[in-house]
Predict the structure.
Amino acid sequence: MDIQNIRQQIPVCQRMTYVNTGMSGPSPTPVVDAIKKRLDHELFEGAASPDVRAEGLEIRDQAKQAVAKLLNASPEEICLTKNTTDGLNHVMNGITWQDGDEIVTCSLEHGSVLVPSHFQGLRHGVNVKVLTLEPDEPRDSILEKIQAALTERTRLVFLSHVEYSSGLRMPVKEIRQMIQNRGGRDVMLLLDGAQTAGHIALDMKDLDCEFYSIPGQKWLLGPEGVGALYIREDMISQVQPHHVAGRATVSNHDPYRIEPITGSMDKFLMTSTSAALQAGMLEAINFVQGVGVDEIESRVLDLASSLKQGLAEVRGVTVISPLDRESSSGLVSFSVDGLEPTEAVSRLWERDRIVCRQVAFPACVRVSLHFFNTEEEVNQIVDSVGNLT
Ligand SMILES: Cc1ncc(COP(=O)(O)O)c(C=O)c1O
C-alpha cells in the first residue's frame, strides 16, 4: 500500500490530522472529480436529454453492482438509499409488527438504531429490550446477554456491526447462528453497517443476516447523501415500502388500479435521484477496493493498536475501546480525567488541527483511524492528548 501516493489523492490529509472518518470520511480527488464530471454533463447537455438520462441510469446500475460486489451479494438484493439511517428505516417501518413483538438491541447504540426501535414500541406495542453493554464487553458475555434476552416473542435483533461509541466489533456471525431457527422460527437480524463498509471486509453470503445498511460518506470516502441497503433475497417481499411511487407498482399508467410489486428492491425507490452522488459512490468503492479492504482492515487495526498503547501510557487517560484485536476496529475512544470530551475535542482542533469527535454515551473522545492515517499521526495524537491537561 503506497500511503504517500494515497495521501496525495486526499487533499484534506495535507491540511490537518483528519481522524473523524467515523462521522464523514475525506473524499479522494477522483471521487469529487466523478461528481463534478456528472454535474458538468448535466449542466451542458441537460439532465433529462436522452443520452444524459441513459448515462444516469447506467451510473445507478453500476453503483448498485459495485455495492453488491463489496458486500458479496447480488445486485437484486441492493437498493441505493440516502444514507445508513434511510436504509434502516426502510426495514423498521416495513416489517409488519404485532403487538407484543420484541426487538433486542443494546445500550452502546447510535440513535439511528435506538430511535427507530422505540418508535415501533410507540406505534405498534413492540417491546424494546436494550441490553446494557460495556464499551469493551467481551464477546462471550455479549452472546450470553443476547441469549438470555431471547423469548418466543423476539422478532428482531438490531445492532451495529461496529459500535460507533467505542469501536467494539460485535460477534455478528455468532449472533446470527444463535438466533437462527429457534423452535422453527428464525429471529431476524438487522445490522447497521455505518461503521463498516470500506473499513472491514463484508460478506453477506457468509454472514447470512436478513438486512444490512451502509453509508457512502464514512469509511468508503464517498459523498454525503448516498448509501445502500441489502435485503436477503427471500426477505424482500416481507418488507413493505413505507414511501411509495410508480416503482412500487407493476405499472403506474392506469389511474384506477395498481398492482404492487413485492419481490423487487425497486419498490423502495422514489422518483428522481442524484446520478452525481451515485457516480461519487461508485468511484469511492472503486478507490477503496483498489487499495483492498482486507489490507485496509489489517492496517487500521495496527494503527488502532498503536494508538491504544500510546494513550494507555498517558497519565489521566483511560482507553475505553476493546483491546483485543478480534473485538477492535479503527475507532478508538478514551476519556481524560477532569476534562469534558467536548472541551478535549475543541482543544485538539484549536491547538493541533486534529479533527475528532466526542460521544455522549459513554462520555468520551473518539478518534477514527483509516488506512490513509499514519503512525506519525498516531504519535502526534498521543503527544497532543498528553498536553491536554
Ligand atoms: C452506528 C451508526 N449508525 C448510523 C449513523 C448515521 O449514519 P448516516 O448518516 O449514514 O445515516 C452513524 C453515524 O455516525 C453511526 O455511527
User: Anything to note?
Assistant: The longest strand covers residues 154-160. The CA atoms of residues 56 and 275 lie 5 Å apart. The pocket of pyridoxal-5'-phosphate is lined by residues 23, 83-85, 110, 112, 160, 164, 192, 194-195, 215, 227 (CB under 6 Å).
